[in-house]
Amino acid sequence: MTKLLKNTLFENVKHLNENFSKHYHDTYTIGITYNGVIKTYNSNRSLDFYKYSIRVNNPNEVHSGVSQDWSHSNFYPTIELLSDLYEQIFFEKKVPYFENYIINDKFLFLKFHNFFDSFFKKENDMIIESNLIDALSYLIINFTSYTKVYDKMFENKIVLKKSLELINDCIDENISLDKLADNCNLSKYHFLRVFKKEMGLTPHSFIINERLNRANHLIQKGKTISEACMLVGFNDQSHFTRNFKKYFGYTPSLFQKNSNIIL
Fold it and tell me: What residue ranges are annotated as transmembrane (predicted)?
């Protein structure tokens, strides 16, 4: 595995028919469709991701979707990877964001196709990295809508900042709504309203999603499914498996079997 893509998840899936509940990733999601379609929902917009188009989701962006006979290649590059490349291009450390979630550009599609093809064929690391940089730099230069300063990208309203810090510290515990609201000196009603407005998810859905993202990383690093399940606060492995498939579209056992590539 090339150093740039260490611990990066890839998907190469054919004829998928799944419904994806509202969820987010702590990485980018970038993929291309070869056949079929997925109707994706981002920021209250409904968009069709169809043959020869490119899909980009920003980190922590809530989205959902419905797929029909969908064949695609997909990967989840880190914030660090894209911000480093942005810095190499523009000489300032910033995080690029993309508002055109579905991009129709035949040159970009071909660049990402070449990258995925070289990766799945396990070609020389230099070829894979060259194709990766070629595709991502074209995406950044031509389709960046705005940027955030790297060190400040997670800053938001004080309510959200305090809540995310508490959730991060207590992710493996049963966090009550009272505890979250008290932490911000708010009523439960006001806390729920502010949190959902800022995150697009209820606190419960956010915590489940955050636990599943962490479990995903732990399984990638070699933890067993039962170990990952317990470390992120799930007491019931069957409940963990149901949620994992609901959010990601595949089971943790399939993910574990295929390491960092879902086929």
Answer: none
Pair 237, 226: CB distance under 8 Å: yes
Neighbouring residues of 242: CB distance < 8 A, sequence distance ≥ 6: none
What the block records as the tokens of 65 is 């979707």
Residue 132 backbone phi and psi in degrees, to 5: -65, -50
User: Is the same domain home to 80 and 119?
Assistant: yes
Domain boundary among 121, 151, 181: 151
Instruction: Please give the Cα distance from 125 to 227 (Å, whole number).
Output: 32
Dist. CA 207–CA 65, nearest whole Å? 20
Query: Of the candidates 244, 180, 242, which has an alpha carbon nearest to the alpha carbon of residue 213?
Result: 244
Residue 95 lies in a domain: yes
Same domain, 137 and 182: no
The answer to whether residues 60 and 97 belong to one domain is: yes
Position 261 confidence tier, pLDDT thresholds 50, 70, 90: low
Structural domain span for residue 48: 3-151
CATH number at residue 228: 1.10.10.60
pLDDT in tens, 44-99: 788 899 999 999 999 988 889 999 999 999 999 999 999 999 999 999 999 999 99
Q: How far apart are CA 48 and CA 227, in angstroms?
A: 38
172-194 tens-digit pLDDT: 888 888 899 888 887 787 888 88
